[in-house]
Write a structure and sequence with these properties.
281 residues; Rossmann fold; elongated; alpha/beta; single chain; binds NADPH dihydro-nicotinamide-adenine-dinucleotide phosphate; 2 domains; ProC C-terminal domain-like fold; eight-stranded mixed sheet; 13 helices; binds (2S)-3,4-dihydro-2H-pyrrole-2-carboxylic acid
């Protein structure tokens, strides 16, 4: 048994709000064989979804958040921010001091989670959807009451989804929400736009998709493996008086850098709005 397996041996994990992200996390944990399926509890308000999770993943699924939370050592809260207050209401006083609470909810501060759940040991994580294929990145922090053994368990769970980065200061989780949490949405928009542009030129949709996907994948791997600065890699493509220079001129003229910066900032500001909704209703 690997070290990451043994730190979670015999542990039980519950997911409250079993939608897209919860399913990704459950799949990652099962894939890496960190926890047995019968030691994973998932709750969802719709019976059909609970049955689907049970049939597909072999986990114990029910429609009761309380039942799921009470069954586990580690409770992962995966509902949308707008549903969080209702879930706090249900779980306050139910989670005991020996349990660990992990929240992946955007904008939900660990202090407000601790206060509303009346529970001190809280981990706050911002994962992202590439976790579904083990290539996610999760940024996390925790309250001082989370002990070393629990921190090791959190690392093991997050490592099953890809990479993990711990920050002492919570503001980095909100900042990461705007970069890595929402980031896949920006990338997929660029991907979609490039595919449409290729179709506009005359490529079939299938060829356009392959050309764009491989170009994005190859460029990311090249940047990662070469360790060169993106500007240097861009210069390698950009021939004097060539085609790339022409395209880059239009992108700069259209304000690509500014618009990306504004978009990231808007996402970051939204975390504060979500926090207000969670705190004040
Ligand atoms: N999607 C992403 O890329 C990321 C999301 N997050 C965070 O993860 C959380 C979940 O997001 P995501 O998985 O995308 O959302 P989903 O909507 O897919 O999942 C949330 C699930 O909770 C269910 N639900 C609604 N009300 C309750 C309730 N009272 N009790 C229990 N379950 C309930 C929803 O059911 P129904 O559909 O029927 O309403 C839904 O299936 C959010 O807080 C988000 O901020 C964090 C990082 C990345
Ligand atoms: O869009 C959202 O609010 C969530 C949080 C980060 C990614 N998706």
């Amino acid at each position: 048994m690997s070290e990451s397996n043994s730190v979670l041996e015999g542990k039980k994990l519950a997911f409250v709000g079993s939608g897209v992200m919860a399913e990704s996390m459950i799949s990652g944990v099962l894939e890496k064989k960190l926890i047995l399926p019968q030691h994973i509890f998932a709750s969802h308000p719709r019976t059909k979804r609970a049955e689907e999770l049970q049939a597909q993943l072999g986990v114990c699924a029910s429609t009761s958040n309380r039942e799921a939370a009470q069954a586990a050592d580690i409770v992962v809260i995966c509902v949308k921010p707008q549903r969080l207050r209702a879930v706090f209401h249900e779980l306050a006083g139910v989670v005991t001091s020996s349990q660990l609470v992990i929240s992946i909810v955007a904008g939900a501060n660990s202090s407000s989670i601790a206060q509303q759940l009346r529970h001190a040991a809280v981990v706050r994580v911002m994962p992202n959807t590439p976790a579904q294929i083990g290539h996610g990145i999760s940024v996390w922090t925790c309250t001082p009451e989370v002990n070393e053994e629990q921190r090791v368990q959190v690392r093991a769970i997050l490592s099953a989804l890809g990479k993990e980065l711990f920050f002492e200061e919570e503001k980095f989780v909100d900042m990461a929400t705007a970069i890595s949490g929402s980031g896949p949405a920006y990338v997929f928009l660029v991907m979609e736009a490039l595919i449409d542009a290729a179709v506009h030129l005359g490529f079939s949709r299938q060829d356009a998709r392959e050309l764009v996907t491989e170009t994005l994948l190859g460029s990311v791997l090249f940047a990662q493996e070469s360790h060169r600065h993106p500007a240097e890699l861009r210069n390698m493509v950009t021939s004097p008086a060539g085609t790339s220079a022409e395209a880059l001129y239009q992108l700069e003229k259209g304000g690509l850098r500014t618009i990306l910066s504004k978009a990231v900032h808007a996402a970051y500001q939204k975390t504060a709005t979500l926090s207000d909704i969670i705190n004040k209703g």
